[in-house]
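so my prof wants the structure for this chain in the tokens format not the other one, which i didnt know existed until like an hour ago. anyway here's the sequence
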Amino acid sequence: MKLRAIAGILLALCSIVAAPSVAAEEEDPVVVIGFSGLLWRDVTEESTPNLYKFVEDSSGANMVVRTVEETTCPTEGWLTVGAGQRAIDPVNGCQKVGEGDWAGLKEANQESSYRAELGLLGDTLQDQDVAAVGPGAKLALTNSAGEFTGEYSDNYADVAGSDLITVDLGAIRYPGDELSSHQGDEYRPRGAIDKFLAAFKGTDAPPPEVVPQIEELDARFGELMTEVPPNAKILVTSVGDAQEAAPQLGFMAVRDGEGLASSDATRQPGLVQLTDVFPTIVSWLEPDAPVLERVVGSEIRGGDGVVDVASRLADDQERSENVRPFVGPFYVGVLLLAAVTGLAAWRVLRRGGRVRGLGRFAAWVASLPVASLLINVFPWWRFAVPWIALFAGMGLIAGLIVAVAYMVPRRDKVEAPIAIIGAITALTLIIDVLTDTVTSHYPLQLASLLGTQPQVGGRFYGLSNASFAIMAVGLLLAASYVAARVRWGGVFLAVVGVAAILIDGSATLGADFGGPPALVVGFVLAGLLIYRVRLTPWWVLGTLLAAGATSLLFSVIDYLRPAAERSHLGRFIQTVIDGGGFEVITRKLSQSLFGLPWWMAVSVFVLAGVVAIWWWYHHTPRPEKEEPSIPLLRHTAFPIIATLVFGMVINDSGVVIPAIGLTVAGLGWAAMSLESVKGREVLAGTAGAEPVRDGDTA
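here's what i got, hopefully its the right format
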């Protein structure tokens, strides 16, 4: 009897101890709540009390909902969650969620530029107990065969015991702008003209009719939260846009820590992307799943600091929305201004005349690109008229740069000012990249006129293609000026070049695949010109091999890191291993020349390279020739052009790289020529004009 009593007591104790753990397992699901069209500026204590309360105990971030096209339909958003890659809806417009033919969806995505594997999340979690509430939630968990094998219901209470529950709370829509104006048409990727026009589009303030939609969404969220267990892992996110005018940053909050959430895919506190949702779900349920080795996104992590999340993220969104419609006018304006200034300088130089102040004006235009980044030090978007603050501030900063450049050097007013402008341009970007990982705010390049737009979903960290262009030009101008004037100039040039390549190519800093090889080409050619070494086929072959090996080395080093910590450099190696490298390379080559077939783009680049090498071989200065009248012009012209063209070939920004790079370099060369008596005499002599008197300056 005693033994039975003791055994009974032990069994009772075991049941008491075990009961909480079982209950915990039942009450600790992963809950992903999605909707379309909600922005952080919509979340206030008055209009959305339930979401506002959830944010108080969570980490938040702006969600980049961009998939393939400019704006994202709910169907595309939910498909992206299920594929872990940007997905498309196979019509120009939005189908009603859940009504698309699965076979048609798969075929369209396999033929798209991103080749999203629809159903990957459903396949990965096939051994998990999953459930869906709403059509979008079901779409995200459908497997690759088009089957949903979990539980489905319109009520959360019916599926509350599942390991993963996805919930579709519906969508907010701007009346009359519901992303469905082209429904039924065959899907067509955007062309170069469409992409160009997108840089001029902004978003208007939401109409009053949107407010009730937001309040209804918040009410549905509040009702849902009364049924979700308090210990559940909860991710709440926008998965699409509310209108089709331009992409916007959406709402995202995760019950994990406090402050600003982030991911390794963006490396920016308070900014994540839709493709991060897939690895977050999988990491929570199956952290060792092999699929995490090849996804493009990264797990979303909660913050560790306390900030006013809603205000901060609404401010970030306001900055990104305000700058977006001015990107197109900025590029058009700066390039037109550069062309007119360059043409005016050429005519003045050919005639051997002078226009007082034209050289300084050319230097001012050359300073505008870096000024467009430095203006982000100031909160211009908070002014009553943001565009006036933006462009006026940019002009003032460029003027200050020119003033410093021409005031610092006492004797050399020809080359030194341009070298100083180049140094300021390069150092601005280098410092921005070096400090990006230690600050809690956007880098200067993000949400800027010259850099990248976060809502577009391109690059979030490191050096963008346009930023690389002006950094490379600035470095070559400044480093070549110094190298030609000091005893150990060759060593100095090599040290600067290696340091720039390391910063630009490092996965934790510049994370630039196409930049390092272009820098190798530029610095090698600059060294050959400064030290008057004749270019030979061996120099060409060695330089190209070194350039290619540089990017490959950076990518392999990044690939050796843990999968969750890789940048796009390491992910490219994984893509090559998986057999998709050729598609990535040909897509970038095609994009670099306005969508031409990749083989045609290769032909153009090869022909241009042959012509450039022939020109160099027949125009390399011989030792017996006299020193050029403006050494910095002679030492940097061909290296900078080669760097920009090489960068255009490897990157996918096309002619943007040489266009913006030559704005800085070309006007710098023009300014030097206008300030140089000898430079004007050379061109004046070719035009048959009278020579300019010594001491005469522009």
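also thought this was worth mentioning. The CA atoms of residues 125 and 286 lie 8 Å apart.
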